[in-house]
Structures are given as structure tokens and as C-alpha cells.
Design a protein that fits this description.
Length: 323
């Protein structure tokens, strides 16, 4: 098959949300494709797509995402435009992506992974241990909330919805002593002035796929598939295969506190996973290692082990999150 490269007249249309982080990820994708094929920027078009999850009335209401219902909240409109041909590829934070995609779409191209760690963000303090008893911490992530309460049941956790900029503004307004952000987001936004201290994965296991950008395409679009092959990062693909198989088997959603991280050591893959009760009262963690190409199997097996150890009803709420 002859590869058709995009041109200024027939551009490759890159769909993305409009947040500064989403745009940075779309530009990175464009730049990598341009470099790989020696193309100018004008061979590409960034198409910003409004998604229901970005609706201001929802974001400003500080409603927990789980109350809005997260299924496809940040992806539905983008995937519709991909299926209808309005865009050729869609760029996503893999951390926010469901483990299955709509029929006709494929999400299997990954850029080299950024820093996977969470960061402790506070104008005055340098880490969780420095938080005073009963201190107020802002996060909308059920995982971070459960992990924090597991270690520090005394903390007062408040909802911090919105994009990176919104959450930093809330911190600046004094609504909390500290918040948590993915290092990857801060790095991609080049926000070096933010008072952030990275947390070792052993202290706070990151979200599945944290720090990874994924590129989705139409399943039958072979030309785009060949373009994307040139920028795919195989190591990130192996790590995410294990992490996402783990998530898939746990049947995870934004409503379930799940953490996991795969690392590569030569051709050996190490996968660590954790599930928590939503109120943080219990955490179960385990790990598995094996050949890198067996990630899918290892993720499935680790999830089964944790499910068995957790028993039924593990993920039920044991405390009213609003109180
Ligand atoms: N849920 C929002 C989201 N999705 C991806 C990132 C950061 C970048 C990444 O992990 O790839 C963030 C913000 C955050 O958690 O601080």
C-alpha cells in the first residue's frame, strides 16, 4: 500500500478537548508526526471539540464526577466526530479513557510516557507528612481520596473539580492546604513555577495509565494506521496493556478507587496494583512480574488475585462523602 501523507490542502485533522493540557497533548502529537515524516505544521489541523464533561455549569457546581455519571463524559463527542470523519485521529489522556472503545474505533497508539507520579502541591508544605491533623486537602479523585484517608484518616477532603488551572486557582484562594496533580500534566504544561513535590509510586500508586497519551483512529483507516505506527512507543504500549487489563478485569470506573503501575526492567514487566475501600478504611495491594509480552495475562491475573482477597462489597461506600 502506498502511504498517503497529509498536505496543506488535505490536512490530517487532530481532534482534542480544548483544555490547555489537552491542547498541549494534541500539539505534541502533531509535532511528532511532522518530525517523523518531515512535514510542515500546515499539513495538520487541530480541531477543538466541546465535550459534555467540560460544561461549565457542571464544573463550577463542584459536583463529584460520580454524581454526574462519567461514562463517555469526556470522549463521546470526540469519538462521534472520529466515526463520522470530521476528524482523522483523536488525542486522549489514557488515564481518562474507558478500557473499551466504541465499535469501529481503535485506541492502540501511545506516545512515550511522561512522569507517572502524582505531585503534592502546596504553597507552604512539602509533603503529606507535613499536613497538620485535620488539615483540608482538595481533590476530586476517588483514588487519591481513598489513598490519603487510608494513611491519614484525620484529613478533611474537599471536592476540587476542574482542569489543572482551575484547581490551582482554588488552592491559591485558600480553599485547601494542598492538592494533588499528575506530574505529567504539570510537565506538559511547562508549569515549573507550581510548588509541586513528586510523590514516589510506593507512597501513592498512580492511576492506571497516568502520564500516557493515546491516539485513537478508525479501525478501517489503514493509511492513518501506517502514519501512527511511526510515532508509537512500544514500551509504553506494553506497560499500558498490563495496566489496562488489570483495570478491565476489575471492572474499574471513576467510581472505584484503583491504582496500578507497570514498569519494565529489560524484558521483564513488573505490575503493581492496589484497590481501596472508597472511605480509605482498607487497602489491598499486590504485584506480579513476568515477560513483557505477557502483560495482558499478568494484568488479568493480578486483578483476579485482588478481587479474591477483597471479597464482595469491597467497593461499597462506608461513609457519606458529603459529610
Ligand atoms: N483526570 C484529569 C487528568 N487526566 C490526565 C491528567 C494529567 C496527565 C496524565 O496523567 O496523563 C489529569 C490531571 C491530573 O490528574 O492532575
Amino acid at each position: 500500500m502506498d502511504l498517503r501523507l497529509p498536505t496543506a490542502g488535505e490536512t490530517l485533522k487532530i481532534g482534542t478537548r480544548g483544555s490547555p493540557l489537552a491542547l498541549a497533548q494534541a500539539y505534541e502529537t502533531r509535532d511528532r508526526l511532522a518530525t517523523a515524516f518531515g512535514l510542515e505544521e500546515d499539513c495538520f489541523e487541530i480541531v477543538v471539540i466541546k465535550v459534555s464533561g467540560d460544561d461549565r455549569s457542571m464544573v463550577e457546581a463542584d459536583k463529584p464526577l460520580k454524581e454526574i455519571g462519567n461514562k463517555g463524559l469526556f470522549t463521546r463527542e470526540i469519538e462521534e466526530d472520529l466515526l463520522s470523519g470530521k476528524i482523522d485521529i483523536a488525542v486522549h489522556s489514557m488515564k481518562d479513557m474507558p478500557t473499551t472503545q466504541p465499535e469501529g474505533l481503535l485506541l492502540a497508539t501511545y506516545l512515550p510516557r511522561e512522569d507517572v507520579r502524582d505531585a503534592f502541591v502546596s504553597p507552604r508544605l512539602g509533603g503529606i507528612a507535613e499536613l497538620e491533623t485535620g488539615a483540608t486537602v482538595g481533590t476530586s479523585s476517588l483514588r487519591r481520596r481513598a489513598q490519603l484517608l487510608n494513611r491519614r484518616p484525620d484529613l478533611n477532603i474537599v471536592e476540587f473539580r476542574g482542569n489543572v488551572q482551575t484547581r490551582l486557582r482554588k488552592l491559591g484562594d485558600g480553599l485547601a492546604e494542598a492538592t494533588f496533580l499528575a506530574c505529567a500534566g504539570l510537565n506538559r504544561l511547562k508549569m515549573t513555577q507550581v510548588p509541586a513535590t513528586p510523590i514516589a509510586p510506593e507512597d501513592m500508586l498512580p492511576a492506571i495509565a497516568q502520564g500516557a497519551i493515546g491516539i485513537e483512529r478508525r479501525l478501517d483507516d489503514n493509511n492513518t494506521a501506517a502514519l501512527l505506527d511511526a510515532i508509537h512507543d512500544h514500551a509504553t504500549g506494553q506497560r499500558l496493556a498490563a495496566e489496562r487489563a488489570f483495570l478491565f478485569t476489575l471492572d474499574g470506573s471513576c467510581e472505584t478507587p484503583i491504582a496500578g503501575l507497570a514498569t519494565l526492567e529489560g524484558t521483564t514487566l513488573h505490575l503493581r496494583g492496589e484497590v481501596l475501600r472508597p472511605d480509605g478504611s482498607e487497602a489491598i495491594a499486590d504485584a506480579i512480574s513476568g515477560p513483557a509480552e505477557d502483560g495482558l495475562m499478568m494484568g488479568t491475573e493480578l486483578a483476579r488475585t485482588l478481587l479474591e482477597r477483597a471479597g464482595p462489597n469491597f467497593f461499597d461506600w462506608h461513609a457519606d462523602p458529603a459529610s
